[in-house]
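Notes to self, Gp5/Type VI secretion system Vgr protein OB-fold domain-containing protein:
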Amino acid sequence: MEHQSHHYQECLLKVNGKVIDGIEKYINQVNIYKNINQLNRAEILINNPIDNNERKINSLYADMAIGDEIAISCKDINETVLFTGLLMGINHQYANGSAFVTLDVMDKAVLLKGKRNNRIFLEKGDDEILQEIGQENGIEVSFEGKATPLEQVLQYQTSDWNFMLQRAYNTAAFCINEEGAVKFIQAHSGKFDELEIELTDKTEYNLAATATQQIKSSVAYGWSADDQEMIESSAPETIAPTHPFLNDKICEVSGGEEYMVSSNQPHAVEQLELIAAAREQLRKLDQITGTITIPTEEALPIGQMVNFSGENHVIAGEMFLGGIEYEYTGNKWYTHLQIGLPEPSENLKLPESAPTFIGIVKTLEGDPLGQYRISVTLPAFQQDDFPVWARLSQQYASATAGSWILPEINDEVILTFLDGKMESPIIIGSVYNKVNTPPEDFVQEDTNFKKGWISPEKLKLILDDELKTITIETPAGNTIILDDEENAITIRDAHGNEGIFNEEGISLNSIKDINLNAEADINLTASGNIVNTASGDFSAEGMNINQKASSAFAAEGANAELKGSGQTVIKGGMVMIN
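result:
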């Protein structure tokens, strides 16, 4: 397409589809801004001639109201419509005898900025997420490219517009707003549409090619929780402008041969590919930046390569059109083409650190990825039917070893997020509250003597720094007490049987029998005496019974009997019977 050198002289305004006759002579200036990743907007400055005696607003626009639809056109044969939007603000000014009205107009998609929202998306790709948000707001949203399904994506206290830009950045896509619709295009998904504009010796321009932050290729690394190692993926083929200003050294001189992106999140290889592509593509589109001013003939689409032609023209070549400003001033229209991205590509990420969240435990089993995650709902989202899966931080987690303490269902837990990204939640702990109170065994005091662990069924492990004791106890009352204060170990069961180990020795107390059974020998040895006492009978039985005394041997009873069924032998130095 060839652009002529003439400028249109008039600006036409329509309010709710109706032309305001005669207002064009009062229009002082119009600026229309259309940029990638921004909502289209316009500012209209109108002279406001008023009756100095009555100070009445000019009737030409006295009936304009917030929310009216405003259309701005070049008043040519075709009445080229450059912008249509909603009147969002009216500013009246008066100074030094002159009065003006400034109209702020935004594209209909401004509805996406209306409020901060909380949402949970499960098992959806970014294309589905973006389109779902558009449908909820009555805005047509399209997505050109590919998107991998994601297990869970969270939107928290973020406007739909900012959230959509964040999601687009993650898929190496940029956003174009036009006529109330929003289109997302993956820059690397295919060759850009091309537009041709002819340059003249009167074309005004301000362009720069810079090697700063340029890269030849990019690779993204992510953590694989399943494989316990970093995985990587390189960007697919990306697109760069073809221009005499550019050569292969633009990346070499900045040291940007390869750009590495690292993430702690458990990304799939397909996601890493998009992350790498995003960094690489956005930087390449920024290789040439600046502005070119041409006459206004028609509304031009942004987000495409433009071939600027012109024999021997110094700036002729291919460049990326990232934005347009239509300017009406001095009764003339100008089109300022924004070459490159409208802002540094790194700012398109719009980072927002995810806050720490309260969660309520929903289920402990059924993790579809088998990563030992648990399912929690997030009260802040008010979507109890949409639980998310979160990894659980343990004090000790190793191969076939570690601690295993899970919260209970309906417990209140605290979640944080890897890299501040809400797709990767981790439970870092549980908290008490007035509903889930601490066990009665624990009292919150400044002395803070007691520590411990008590299960829902009252299995207890209590450490008492004041008494210097460690107590293990079951619900029935079976206990083991390690006591440094008494220098003792006490084992006691629910029936009253106990064993005491202290400086006096070992005491075993039983409310009934004590039975010792061994598959082999039982040996009793004492450095002192061994005393066996029974209130009832004392019996000893064995295949053979051998008793031997180093000095005296005595056996005494009210009645005594020594009997053998075979030979009975009694020997001694002297045998005395009665």
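- Residues 1-6, 344-351 have pLDDT under 50 and may be disordered.
- The CA atoms of residues 22 and 433 lie 69 Å apart.
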